[in-house]
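hi! just following up on the protien thing from before. the input was this:
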Amino acid sequence: MKKVLILIAFVLIPMIVHAETIKLKSGKTIEGKIVERNDKFIKVDRGIGVGIPYYLDEIESVGEKTAISIDASGINEQPQGKLEEILEKYSKMKEFTCKFTFYKKDEKGPKIGPPVGPNESFDPSKIGELAVTPETTQSGVLKFRKPLSLSYHYNVKSNLDYESKEGAFVISDGNDLWSYDMPTRSSPESKPEKYVLTQKVKDILSLRADMLKSAEKFKEREKRFQDPANPPLVVPPEMENYELINPPVYLPACVLEPFKNLKHDLITFEGEETINGEKVYKFVVKGSQENRKSIHWIGVQDGMPRRIYEYDWENDLVANKMDLADVQVGPNLPEEEFKFKNDGTFIEESLSESMPDMNKMLKQAFDTPPEETFTKFFENPLSEITELKGSGMFFRGGEAFIRFRCSKNVILKDAQDYTEYPQEIAESADYFIKSFPEDEGMLKNVNELTLKKYIIKSQPGKYPEEGRILLKNKKHNVYFFKMWIWVD
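and the predicted 3d structure came back as:
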């Protein structure tokens, strides 16, 4: 069939004379100008002034530097043109409703053991035979209105019983957001209580922006620690969740807006197909360090997704499947669809009052303020130091690092536990050069540096492990401090 489509395309399209990329089935790629084509072969001038014939049954695809596909109508389309067409149609869409189904089974992901009850014991030797690959189906009715109004009522079925849920929802009118997961019990005998959490959308977006900014800051810093000769294993993340949705609900932003958060230069147009009687364009997003390979089927009529397949982190097997059915664009949904109505069975709990504390906690976790680190580990008041800067990141463990100038005597808390470590001055200086590259000049001369170190270890070979180092430049009275703690 593919050969027939290629044949039709070459017969119907007039001769062109600009540079093309021809990919042969052998894997070889040819660059040149197509100077002649018929129903058996094309002739390509590769810069020598003579057309060399390549037979159609040898050819995999023809494209201009990027892959192009030939659909059943025999028209070659460049990916950028189809992308612009889809995005233009999406721009005209104001709202839509559909049935949404998400299916996940990552064969190469981690396997999960069975939960252990309060009076049960688990035999680690049987983990191999008892562990299973999590398999989840999340399905429901999705309604969306630009820019931030959302109504998603869904159920979750999983082979892990504790992951299953019914009657869950996320609702937003663009100003407030209501979310309900599943009933909770204070004890096995108590009556389940249904809590609906409410948040301000502006608080959610502000917190998200701060987290992304901090994560990007650390990502740039980590690049300085990487060894070019031994690059780290990169595990591309799943597609980015919609900005108002939190895990474990998985609703990628590109479900609501085609190709959202995906680089357009990684997208190729593969042709036209039909899903449930509707014409769709098929696009493939190439896997990279920033995203996994994915396939998107987008409605020709309205520019909305109909199906999305996302591969595992090795870009080998399909791990996530998303289907949109009964898509209706512009159904004029009433405002009530995007507001929560309490039927008296729910307990509403606002997170607005706790948001400042939550923001502070996450700020410290993703970008620990240097003042916090200094006051925690030094006796001196902040008024005695200058040029303080640094950061930190903590989850179950992490590290914090600061630098500052002080002309007075610096007093460490737990000073008696620190030991002089001259043998590690060079190694520590290298760490701080990568953390504060602007201070490289005062960290290069090891004769100007002194080092104190404090290590806490649990049983041999076991975590947590905690450590602290203080590096001082005696000439400039500049101090560099690092602490870390890792919990297994």
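The radius of gyration is 29 Å.
Residues 368-486 form one domain.
cheers
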